[in-house]
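Predicting structure from sequence has reshaped protein science. With that in mind, we have picked out one protein's residues alongside their backbone shape tokens:
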Amino acid sequence: MYENLKKTLELSPQYKKVFEMMQHYNHLYHLAHKTERAFSLTALLLLCSQCLNVYLVLVTFFKVENETFSSALYWESVSRLFIGPLSISGVVLCASSIASQVRKIRVSLQMIHSSLLYEADKNHKTLQLVTSMMNTEFPQMTAYGILELKPSLILASLGSVLTYGLLVLNIKKT
């Protein structure tokens, strides 16, 4: 869609082409809503389970006595400690890529809008279509409306794990 908008920008935007682009834009809008609804609860459950998994591993790793901590339990804990943040990062990066593509499309629409303004009297209908597309608000990808799935969530979750790990380590020393 982004490449098609770029091609439309390079050519003189005509009403028929922009109307076709608006139909694609509407399909993309509906797809984004369906994706957010389908993905939202699953993302929340996955994020919660992986965070809980990481915290349980930290507690197990720091609170179990060294004599009873076998090498199998050690390697299981290490793998679970890495899989949690990696899966959270994967989910967040996939969800945030949708928002970045929408931003690219909006930039292209703004450029088309600016080029149409030079001859606003000739391109009145086309200008209305482009303005309508620019005013369309796409949904934010969230984890059931609780967390926005942005790259900053990765840093926040890693900071939380680090803080919790230091807390558990401090408790172990006492």
Q: What stands out?
A: The two ends are 59 Å apart (CA to CA). Residues 15-63 form the longest helix (49 residues). The chain is about 80% helix and 0% strand. The longest strand covers residues 142-143.
